[in-house]
């Protein structure tokens, strides 16, 4: 899974890399090695999605980061629900670390920070995220041994490359140093991430799995990467519809350029594909003679008030 790579100057490069397995006793047939080698191509493709590349360069809008947090909330809610249901299954139980790993409560704190006390009423599961969630529930209910793939893909990534994204988000979005808004990336109950990842890999390798099951887990991990990429692509499309600045409520400031029919984010946000863009509506209204007269009168009053204040 991805991890930060230090540059010669001591800072982080704007990329994610596979962590190296330090245990010389690891066998090529161990599940951790099969997953590492078997998902390299998927990992590279995910890393090179436009959303991830922009994120790593600090080009992440607050509204888009909020939507990504929403997607994570629904994903981890599904994953941790199925993990709880299968915590006694011998094919998954050794990887059950609710205190150390579970992210749902941390994500709820982040959403409360971004959306307020009534955050649950303001969020909804996107189409791409719903497909990911549906797959997790299917696996948990019908093929619980494949939960290993989803847990590995998510949590090991969070403890590795996710820590790079935490720093980028905090800096780019000017989030508080108290780590509000990025609790998802904070693992208070893991004192040493590298040691924990080694423990996790050792537990994976000790699972009583035959060759066929291991291959199915690797295949499922690649599916997990594809679901993540679909979410990234979905977010990228929303990001392209956002203006340079966005209202905190989520509606972007349109720049007034181009065809209004190519302003889909407004249509989606307002629940209709028919209305004109607010920018163009405002411009059209301002061109009305009566409105211009009222605006001129208001400006004159404002100018008089300002002169009085200065004197």
How many strands, what sense, and barrel or not for the largest sheet? 2 strands, antiparallel
Which value, in Å, is the CA radius of gyration?
Answer: 24 Å
Overall pLDDT metric: 80
Please report the number of helical segments.
15
Stretches where pLDDT falls below 50 for ≥5 residues?
Answer: 1-14, 17-22, 245-277, 298-311
Distance between the first and last residues' Cα: 66 Å
Total DSSP E strands: 2
Order of helices and strands: EEHHHHHHHHHHHHHHH
Strand order of the largest sheet: 1-2
The level of helicity is 55-70%
Strand content: under 5%
The chain-level structural class is mainly alpha
Globally, the shape reads globular
Protein name: heme oxygenase (biliverdin-producing)
EC number: 1.14.14.18
Organism: Junco hyemalis (Dark-eyed junco)
Enzyme class: oxidoreductase
Describe the structure in your own words.
The longest helix has about 30 residues, at about 210-240. Mean pLDDT is about 80; it is low at about 1-15, about 15-20, about 245-275 and about 300-310. With about 300 residues, the chain is mainly α. It has a two-stranded antiparallel ribbon with strand order 1-2. It has 15 helices and two strands. It is about 60% helix and about 0% strand. InterPro entries: Haem_Oase, Haem_Oase-like, Haem_Oase-like_multi-hlx, Haem_oxygenase_CS. GO terms for molecular function: heme binding; heme oxygenase (decyclizing) activity; metal ion binding. This is heme oxygenase (biliverdin-producing).
């Amino acid at each position: 899974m991805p991890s930060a790579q230090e540059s010669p100057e001591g800072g982080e490069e704007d990329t994610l890399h596979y962590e190296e397995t330090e245990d010389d006793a690891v066998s090529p047939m161990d599940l951790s090695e099969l997953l590492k080698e078997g998902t390299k191509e998927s990992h590279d493709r995910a890393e090179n999605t436009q959303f991830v590349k922009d994120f790593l360069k600090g080009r992440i809008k607050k509204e888009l980061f909020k939507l990504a947090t929403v997607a994570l909330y629904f994903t981890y809610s599904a994953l941790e629900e199925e993990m709880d249901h299968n915590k006694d299954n011998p094919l998954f139980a050794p990887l059950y670390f609710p205190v150390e790993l579970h992210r749902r409560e941390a994500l709820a704190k982040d959403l409360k920070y971004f959306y307020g006390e009534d955050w649950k009423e303001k969020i909804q599961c996107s189409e791409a995220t719903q497909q990911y969630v549906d797959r997790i529930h299917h696996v948990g209910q019908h093929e619980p041994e494949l939960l290993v793939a989803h847990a590995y893909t998510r949590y090991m990534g969070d403890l590795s490359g996710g820590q790079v994204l935490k720093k980028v988000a905090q800096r780019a979005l000017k989030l508080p140093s108290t780590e509000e808004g990025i609790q998802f990336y904070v693992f208070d109950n893991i004192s040493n991430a590298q040691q924990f990842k080694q423990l996790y890999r050792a537990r994976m390798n000790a699972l009583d799995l035959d060759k066929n099951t291991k291959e199915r887990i690797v295949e499922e991990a690649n599916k997990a990467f594809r679901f993540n990429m679909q979410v990234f692509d979905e977010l990228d499309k929303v990001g392209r519809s956002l203006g340079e600045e966005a209202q905190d409520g989520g509606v972007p400031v349109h720049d007034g350029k181009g065809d209004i029919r190519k302003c889909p984010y407004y249509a989606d946000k307002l629940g209709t594909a028919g209305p004109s863009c607010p920018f163009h509506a405002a411009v059209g209204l301002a061109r009305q003679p009566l409105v211009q007269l009222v605006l001129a009168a208001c400006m004159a009053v404002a100018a008089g008030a300002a002169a009085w204040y200065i004197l």
